[in-house]
């Protein structure tokens, strides 16, 4: 893959994402024109109504969608390097549902401890990742089939957990349903302020992960030839991937397929060098989830489709297409 | 150069290698031969520190292998396995550049000196013409040469090759082994390789180590090792051997399965 070209594509995607964000802010029950949006964002707005709509409702939601999309996509790209497997994604491997079970336990059984939701998500995600590793590990590494099978097992286990929790706490369930489906509706500034600091930390660590990801994607033996401690890289990159996925779950619930579809598209566009693949996944993940959320809230208005459901509708067939093409 | 002193390696409770010793001198080409499952590759992997050994010791230029850190090991030796796979869009020059990695700190970029070494490695393995092609588009022999170039860019003192010819047709096998010989003669590179073909082992090695069921049967020059008795004992095959002269390497003709 041509290097200057890959760099240009990454920059172009970032610009496109920002453009899409500005347009998305204008869409909704009250349509706002782009010049008005820019005026409101950078100077005083002409009407107080627009001020409220943009600053309190649309901008936090758009930023949240972008941050979460970026997080999940980076998480998927990292897991794919670490597991040497293009199907590794936080959803399919069970990391997302592991995190969700633990969040749900707090939401339903111990609502007084909501401040521990991010921590619970992280612990649940790590637990799921550990189980997947334990199940999928073979002497010669991890095969695509065993990763998916272990993911199925972990997802089934967590699905059972979620089902059990929903039955015994059925009275409190309605509050958790929106979250479970991966909806960004009515999250507002709280979720944004919760996730933003963690995301910054995750992104900075991801920059340091680029070189290690590039080495480990060549396989254990080559990495160890090059003087790397393979297990240390594998564990640290996995923890970072789980961290990014877990904070996303904590903020807006389960959103599947972003971690699978986005790195795959990014790889087609800029190649498999993580120097380009990781920023590209970040930009594209932000764009994809922004589109899913904006589509979900405008296409069938006044009905609102959670972004997680829209992603599943689009991502499921894409996954089948990958299987059919044998691209793993 | 290095000495392997009575090492044992256990794999799933069984001894894959027991009480194994051999020594490699600077500038030597040493081949390890033996039947499938005899532990040849396991031995090589333990020397490269890809898998742990449980007893005994390996000393590299007088330093215990276990006391080195991973980067030190990487600067001293590089091991290539029979089949290596690069990401599908990686170019040859990118692959070879990774060989400089053990010499860099995490924040350092490749400088002109590194690129000179990379180009030198491409030149030595005769793949300069392919440098901008993807590794995946090369033939088996060319891609094996690209991986050897990556190993060379690492500037190791010892090259460890695990069945470098297994997946290649005979002309590419010859090409890779000729390259190994060239690197050995021109640069004094010490090479330890696992080979299957007895004639290749005989003609390309200074010394041969014979492994059977995890134990050393014998070691020595091709003339000392390649005997009908050894072949009958280790491979259960009858063979005729031409000992051309003390200078030349013996030629082995396999006849039939021994009864």
Please give a structural write-up.
The complex is a heterodimer of chains A (328) and B (259). Chain A contains 13 helices and two strands, in the order αααααββαααααααα. Chain A is mainly α and 328 residues long. Chain A has one domain (3-325): ABC transporter involved in vitamin B12 uptake, BtuC (Orthogonal Bundle). Chain A has a two-stranded antiparallel ribbon. In chain A, β1 and β2 form a beta hairpin. Chain A is globular and about 65 Å long. Chain B is an alpha/beta fold and 259 residues long. Chain B has one domain (2-86, 156-257): Rossmann fold (3-Layer(aba) Sandwich). In chain B, the strands form three sheets. In chain B, strands 6-7-8-3-9-10 form a six-stranded mixed sheet, with helices on both faces. Chain B is globular and about 60 Å long. At the A-B interface, α8 and α9 of A face α2 and β6 of B.
Distance between the termini of chain A: 19 Å
- What would you report as the Rg of chain A, rounded to the nearest angstrom? 20 Å
Specify the biggest β-sheet of chain A. 2 strands, antiparallel
The helix content of chain B, as a percent range, equals: 25-40%
Beginning-to-end CA distance, first to last residue of chain B: 41 Å
Provide the CATH top-level class of chain A.
Mainly Alpha
With strands numbered from the N-terminus, the spatial order across the biggest sheet of chain A is: 1-2
């Amino acid at each position: 893959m041509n290097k200057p070209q890959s760099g240009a594509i990454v920059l172009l995607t970032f610009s496109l994402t920002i453009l899409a964000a500005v347009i998305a802010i204008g869409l909704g029950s009250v349509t706002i024109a782009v010049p008005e949006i820019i005026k409101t964002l950078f100077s005083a707005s002409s009407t107080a109504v627009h001020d409220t709509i943009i600053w309190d409702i649309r901008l936090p939601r758009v930023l949240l969608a972008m941050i979460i999309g970026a997080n999940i996509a980076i998480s998927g790209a990292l897991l794919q390097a670490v597991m040497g497997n293009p199907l590794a994604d936080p959803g399919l491997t069970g990391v997302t549902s592991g995190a969700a079970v633990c969040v749900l336990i707090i939401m339903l059984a111990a609502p007084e401890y909501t401040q521990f939701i991010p921590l619970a998500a992280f612990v649940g995600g790590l637990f799921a990742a550990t189980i997947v590793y334990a199940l999928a590990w073979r002497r010669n590494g991890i095969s695509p089939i065993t990763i998916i099978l272990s993911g199925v097992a972990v997802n089934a286990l967590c699905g059972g957990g979620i089902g059990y929790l929903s039955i015994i706490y059925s009275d409190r369930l309605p509050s958790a349903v929106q979250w479970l489906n991966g909806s960004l509706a009515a999250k507002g500034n709280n979720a944004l302020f919760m996730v933003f600091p963690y995301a910054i930390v995750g992104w900075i660590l991801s920059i340091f992960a680029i070189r290690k990801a590039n080495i480990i994607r060549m396989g254990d033996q080559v990495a160890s030839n090059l003087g790397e401690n393979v297990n240390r890289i594998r564990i640290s990159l996995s923890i970072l991937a789980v961290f990014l996925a877990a904070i996303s779950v904590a903020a807006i619930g389960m959103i599947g397929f972003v971690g699978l579809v986005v790195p795959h598209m990014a790889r087609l566009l800029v190649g498999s060098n993580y120097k380009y693949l990781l920023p590209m996944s970040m930009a594209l993940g932000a764009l994809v989830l922004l589109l899913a959320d904006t589509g979900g809230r405008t296409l069938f208005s006044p009905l609102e489709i959670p972004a997680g459901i829209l992603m599943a509708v689009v991502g499921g067939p894409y996954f089948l297409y990958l299987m059919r093409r044998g691209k793993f | 150069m290095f000495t392997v002193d009575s090492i044992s390696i256990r794999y799933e409770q069984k001894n894959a290698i027991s009480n194994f010793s051999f020594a490699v001198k600077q500038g030597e080409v040493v081949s390890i031969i033996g039947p499938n499952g005899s532990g040849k590759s396991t031995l090589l992997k333990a020397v490269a520190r890809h898998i742990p050994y449980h007893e005994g010791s390996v000393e590299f230029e007088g330093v215990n292998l276990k006391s080195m850190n991973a980067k030190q090991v990487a600067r001293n030796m590089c091991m290539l396995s029979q089949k290596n796979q690069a990401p599908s869009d990686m170019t040859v020059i990118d692959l070879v550049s990774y060989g400089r990695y053990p010499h860099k700190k995490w924040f350092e970029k490749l400088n002109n000196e590194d690129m000179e070494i990379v180009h030198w490695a491409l030149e030595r393995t005769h793949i300069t013409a392919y440098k901008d092609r993807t590794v995946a588009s090369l033939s088996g022999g060319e891609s094996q040469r690209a991986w050897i170039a990556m190993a060379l860019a690492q500037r190791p003192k010892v090259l460890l090759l695990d069945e470098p010819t297994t997946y290649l047709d005979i002309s590419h096998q010859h090409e890779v082994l000729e390259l190994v010989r060239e690197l050995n003669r021109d640069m004094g590179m010490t090479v330890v390789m696992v080979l299957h073909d007895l004639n290749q082992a005989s003609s390309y090695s200074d010394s041969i180590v014979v492994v059977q069921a995890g134990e050393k049967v014998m070691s020595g020059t091709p003339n000392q090792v390649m005997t009908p008795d050894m072949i009958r004992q280790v491979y259960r095959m009858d063979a005729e051997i031409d000992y051309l002269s003390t200078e030349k390497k013996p030629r082995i003709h396999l006849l039939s399965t021994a009864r």
